[in-house]
Amino acid sequence: MQQQILHLLCAAGNCRLHFSGHKHELVAGCCMIAMDSHVGHIQPSDDCRLYRFLLPAHEQVGLMPYGSYGTCGWLHLFMHPIFRLEGDILTLVEQDFRAVEFRSQHTPETYRKEAVMQAMRSLYLDVMNAHASIFGREEVSTRSADIMSRFIQMLETGTYRQYRTVAHYAQQLCVTPKHLHRISTEVSGRAPSYWIRQFTMMEIKHLLMHRKLTAKEVAGRMNFDSLSHFSRYISEYKSVSRNT
């Protein structure tokens, strides 16, 4: 199943939704960029002006700002997917959302995708600039940023459904688990195991709450070898979460 990135901008009114097992309300000026599989029950108010579209996760990679902050900002965006804009930056981002919407509806089919992606690139530059002003900007080495970026890309494509060990990802990246741990901590402040758990648990919560699947069905979809293994994994996650 191809992962999709959901983009929402509430320009007026409000919008209620569920994200990763929790209720949220987007008010005017709130922007959200998150994996679509983790979002459910979107309910705009009658006066809501809501911009909404999806983008395949693998296409998002080429839209991120170039350089080390692109990777750090990507991770910050994952940790803080809902943020509020105001003033000129809100006006600018709303214009970007409108441009994407207009291009997708009115550009001739031959170059529609290229035109939409160009509009999306401008949107990401403005969103990441706003996000950096809210949550800060960090710089890391190009090498570390590249490795961390490829690690997160693997997770965004859903690899965590099959592989949940740091050793697997380190092998795919041609580094040692210890080296991947150092880079992940340097770039994001979190160990690689944290990111694997986060992606895994966000999908588990969504499947249990919004797809109405049984624990056994979810365990099967997520490729756990038994229901008891699945139960232990959830218990361990809760234990880790309480201590972090």
Please supply descriptive tags for the structure shown above.
244 residues, alpha+beta, Arc Repressor Mutant, subunit A, globular, four-stranded antiparallel sheet, Jelly Rolls, 18% strand
Q: Gist?
A:
By secondary structure, this protein is of the alpha+beta class.
Question: Please, could you describe this protein's structure?
Answer:
The protein is an alpha+beta fold. The protein has 2 domains: 4-135, Jelly Rolls; 143-242, Homeodomain-like (Arc Repressor Mutant, subunit A, Orthogonal Bundle). The protein contains 10 helices and 7 strands. The protein has helices at residues 57-60, 68-79, 87-106, 112-135, 142-156, 166-172, 177-188, 192-210, 215-221, 227-242, and strands at 4-12, 14-19, 22-27, 30-35, 39-44, 49-56, 82-84. The strands form 2 sheets. Strands 6-1-4-7 form a 4-stranded antiparallel sheet. Helix 2 (68-79) packs across helix 5 and helix 3 (87-106) runs antiparallel to helix 4. It starts with a strand and ends with a helix.
What's the helix and strand layout?
Layout: E1 4-12, E2 14-19, E3 22-27, E4 30-35, E5 39-44, E6 49-56, H1 57-60, H2 68-79, E7 82-84, H3 87-106, H4 112-135, H5 142-156, H6 166-172, H7 177-188, H8 192-210, H9 215-221, H10 227-242
Antiparallel strand pairs: 1-4, 1-6, 2-3, 2-5, 4-7
Helix pairs in contact: 2-4, 2-5, 3-4, 5-7, 6-7
